[in-house]
Amino acid sequence: MIKKTIFAALIAVTACAAVLPLAQAQVSVNINIGAPPPPRAEPLPPPRHGYVWAPGFWDWDGHRHVWREGHWLRERPGYVYAAPVWHQGPRGWELQRGGWRGGPPPGRGPRHHDRDDDRGPGGGPGHGPGCPPGHARKGEC
């Protein structure tokens, strides 16, 4: 009697194990970002020796488009600054972040940070006229 009970329980467990993989669900989530608003008209400041003007652009903060104002970046010899640009691709609108392109071969030339911009005397984040209060913590200065 015990052997029959164990055998029946073994068959029941095997049958359940064979059915369980069939009862799986798959979830897919797609987030489509709408087209960015048209660029804002921003006055181009006069040239500044040793600096490059990075124009403002519409950024995506995870919920909505947010305007990032233009700012000065310290010039990097051998590099060219490329402004951020929105492109409509196969997965919707995508932001190409831009930044510094080119430069000296690895191991040659001075080393700089990508966001080495006008911080004024004293250096640190949030200092000088180029960084409004609160923007340094967000990595905007």
Give me a quick take on this structure.
The chain is an alpha+beta fold.
CA-CA gap between termini: 79 Å
Helix/sheet category:
alpha+beta
Low-confidence stretches: 112-128
Query: What order do the helices and strands follow?
Result: HEEEEEEEE
| Mean pLDDT over the residues | 75
| Cα gyration radius (Å) | 28 Å
Q: Which shape, going by the Cα principal axes?
A: elongated
Q: What fraction, in percent, of the residue positions are helical? A: 10-25%
Count of individual helical segments: 1
Strand order in the largest sheet: 1-4
**What is the strand content?**
15-25%
The count of DSSP E runs of length 2 or more, i.e. the number of strands, is 8
Regarding quaternary structure, what we see is: single chain
Q: Describe the largest sheet.
A: 2 strands, antiparallel
Notes on the structure:
- The chain is an alpha+beta fold and 141 residues long.
- Helix content is 13%, strand content 24%.
- It contains one helix and eight strands, in the order αββββββββ.
- The strands form four sheets. The chain has a two-stranded antiparallel ribbon. A two-stranded antiparallel sheet has the order 2-3.
- Strand 6 and strand 7 form a beta hairpin.
- The longest helix has 18 residues.
- The chain is elongated.
- The N and C termini lie far apart (79 Å).
- About 12% of the residues have low confidence.
List keywords for this structure.
1 helix; 13% helix; two-stranded antiparallel sheet; 141 residues; alpha+beta; two-stranded antiparallel ribbon
